[in-house]
Amino acid sequence: MCLLIYLLCLTISSITGTDNIIKLEVTPSTIKLGLTSQMEIVCSVAPDPTGSYIVLNIIISQSTDTLEPQYTDVAGVEAMLEPSLYVNNSATIQGQISVTDTSYLKLNWTYPTENEAGRYQCVATLSQDEEFTVVAETTVDLEQPDFDDLFSELDRIKSYFMAETRNVTELWEKKMEGAVTAVFNRSAVFDNRMYLLSKYSNMSRNQSEAMCQFVSGYLAEIESDQEFGFVKEFFNSLYMANGTKVIVGGTDQVKEGNWLFQHSGHNVTYFSWAPGHPTNSSGDNNNDCLALDISDGYNMVDVPCNTSGQNFRSRFLCEITHSPYSSSQ
């Protein structure tokens, strides 16, 4: 008789005061179909600082009927085992059973559907001389979105993609800034344009044009005495070996003596020829591209469009609209 009373007292004392042991939390508590992007349910069981009980398992169940719940186990976690889903469910699952830390079972859904609405129950089995359970419940409501909800979501998506586009653009421009600095010397701004002088030598006209296009530019099209003067000042600020020729826009490959800009297709109307140029008048029809000769005061000369293997060094000059990859000019 005394033993029976003793065991009964143990059982009653183990159940008393368990309200704060277990928590069942859901975020958000209402699913808006098609708009709620994430839903999370967490059942947590606090550890006993005195060590008077230990957690054996946690099980989360669901009932689609919220008035007269008939629960079906959804997921569970047991001591020494990985958490498991008991039904065919799209949730991701995490959980642990611990003696010293909080024991928990967590379910997460991406874009939850009406299947995730309903009444949820969490049951944790504990041991304190003998086993007992603690229970927590919560409800997930379902709501059809209205026009305002849909409009707000579209506005949120628009803002998100605009922000992401800005982030990608900023990252791209930072990387391109580094690439431009490695490959080119950059001028100051002239008439909302900038000039990039290649640091590398002896590319063909087509290769030079491709490099300019890669940085959103084109081979420089010099169209006035003022622009030519600006380019010469830019060259004067840099070191270039004597004899270097700088390829710019302009070719008469289509018709001998008829100089055209490759990018715009316009006729070249401004010239500052070095003495003896253009050489086409002397019957040399291979010099079909325009260049600036460092050895002759940067005046214009006609040179072969493929400068590889020639007896001079060549570089090329790109022209870009002032904005891409320019942080300080």
TrEMBL record:
Entry keyword Signal: yes
Keyword Mitochondrion carried by entry: no
Residues making up the signal peptide according to the UniProt record: 1-17
One matching Pfam family: Lectin_C
Protein name per Swiss-Prot or TrEMBL: C-type lectin domain-containing protein
SMART domains: CLECT (SM00034)
Originating organism: Biomphalaria glabrata (Bloodfluke planorb)
Gene designation: 106074979
Domain C-type lectin: residue ranges: 190-306
Keywords: Signal
Gene3D superfamilies assigned: Mannose-Binding Protein A, subunit A
